[in-house]
Amino acid sequence: MARILAIDYGMKRTGIAVTDELQIIASGLTTVNTKELLPFLKDYTEKETVELFVVGEPKQMDNTASESEVLIQPFLEKLKKQFPNIPVYRVDERFTSKMAFQTMIDSGLKKNQRKNKALIDEISATLILQSYLYSK
């Protein structure tokens, strides 16, 4: 089987998580500079088979699109153009950053380690991917 890759898209940094080949476990992969995201994905998909991109969908509490959705739409168009054979699925990402921070606290990370925004983005991508796997 192929992997599923999740993306927590951000203006500066983007968190990335992937499944194992059996699509059972979601694991944080890395955080990349958003400007380098498409080249990173191209390189990754040349080494690993990716069946699906799961991209976080930021929403307001009333279920309408968040302001940051405007930034994600151009990325999605580029993603679909560069990877026409890999479908894109959107997952509600409300509260993933808060849940990621709480995960860091629960796992015993020290206060200065919890300030690592790249780690928060990676954990957020993992939570997005876990959410998708649970919904399957």
UniProtKB/TrEMBL annotation:
SMART domains: YqgFc. Its main location: cytoplasm. Gene3D superfamilies: YqgF/RNase H-like domain. GO terms for cellular component: cytosol. Belongs to the YqgF HJR family. Keywords: Cytoplasm, Hydrolase, Nuclease, Ribosome biogenesis. The keyword Transferase does not apply. GO terms for molecular function: hydrolase activity, acting on ester bonds; nuclease activity. Could be a nuclease involved in processing of the 5'-end of pre-16S rRNA. This is Putative pre-16S rRNA nuclease. Signal peptide: none annotated. Its EC number is 3.1.-.-. Pfam families: RuvX. It comes from Aestuariibaculum suncheonense. Residues 2-100 form the YqgF/RNase H-like domain. PANTHER family: POLYNUCLEOTIDYL TRANSFERASE, RIBONUCLEASE H-LIKE SUPERFAMILY PROTEIN. GO terms for biological process: rRNA 5'-end processing. The keyword Hydrolase applies. HAMAP family: Nuclease_YqgF. It is found in: Cytoplasm. CDD domains: YqgF (cd16964).
